[in-house]
Amino acid sequence: MVREPAPNVLTGWAVHSPGPIADRPLASVHRPVPAPGPGELLLWVEACGVCRTDLHLAEGDLPPHRPSTVPGHEIVGRVAAVGESVTRFRAGDRAGGAWLRGTCGSCRYCRAGRENLCPASLYTGWDADGGFADATLVPADYAYALPDDQDATLLAPLLCAGIIGYRALRRSALPPNGRLGIYGFGASAHLAAQVALAEGATVHVLTRSVRARELAVDLGASSVGGAYDRPPEPLDSAILFAPVGDLVPVALEALDRSGTLAVAGIHLTDIPALNYGRHLFEERNLRSVTSNTRQDGRDFLDTAARIGIQVTVSPYPLSRADQALRDLAADRVNGAAVLVPG
């Protein structure tokens, strides 16, 4: 059943004036419901996850690409209308919109299957309005078909937190049955940890949040500790999800020889000076993670369904989007925050 919002009008939130979240950079907006252009889907939003990237956009850590953009890129919705040339979806289908919304398809990165590095790439909630609203447009070629029989609030975090966490896990070069350290344990980390555990890894979680440590134990982590603590054994791989540059040397020191640290965030505070002998010698590797490919998304969604991934969410009504961002900034969200219109 396709939900009908107010005729011809969408309600949502836009980043009006980027700044500290305490200054309420989001503003409520009412706009005409857009018509889908060629290759586009119009979605009535069922749920939209709240990502730390949304917080970075609201606070100005990421400079806005356009004024008064509606954030949100973990979108689960029902197709209300399709634009010309769309064949994969029809009205009533459930579809997901994610962070990556466009690439050129012809540059050397796109041709090599590395479209996440496309210089012309476009992003939902940054280059175009996203899902902090009750309706939005999504390019059909970058949308994901989603199951009808699952709770929309549990699907939403998979579309960025899950996909980016999956790519970060692959970038960490975790060997079979390896020892993985996870620094920060929010929406993305609690999903990546489950993939690693399902693949036989030993997982150690280092985070400042007591509630997050409890969740990590419940999901099967072998140990938990504070963000700056030393794990109980050397690590083959580590992923830094917390946007804290001070943790880069901490995580590098925890690596065994030839270990790899993947930094998963789109924004990171400054990294302190590294000591070559302590942090990088013995072939330790430091890698960044940039966006994702659509193949990453397909692979992760297939994996999530296969292992029966557990998604921990904190739902908020759409009307409290600004509160959800404040809670995220203060580490008061357990798992993933999700906005629900209506």
TrEMBL record:
Pfam families: ADH_N (PF08240). Keywords: Metal-binding, NAD, Oxidoreductase, Zinc. Residues 37-148 form the Alcohol dehydrogenase-like N-terminal domain. The keyword Lyase does not apply. The keyword Membrane does not apply. Its cofactor is Zn(2+). One of its GO terms (molecular function) is alcohol dehydrogenase (NAD+) activity. It catalyses: a secondary alcohol + NAD(+) = a ketone + NADH + H(+); a primary alcohol + NAD(+) = an aldehyde + NADH + H(+). InterPro entries: ADH-like_N, ADH_Zn_CS, ADH_Zn_typ-2, GroES-like_sf, NAD(P)-bd_dom_sf. It is an enzyme of class 1 (oxidoreductase). Its EC number is 1.1.1.1. Gene3D superfamilies: Medium-chain alcohol dehydrogenases, catalytic domain (3.90.180.10), NAD(P)-binding Rossmann-like Domain (3.40.50.720). GO terms for cellular component: cytoplasm. Belongs to the zinc-containing alcohol dehydrogenase family. NCBIfam families: adh_fam_2. This is Probable alcohol dehydrogenase AdhA. It comes from Streptomyces benahoarensis.
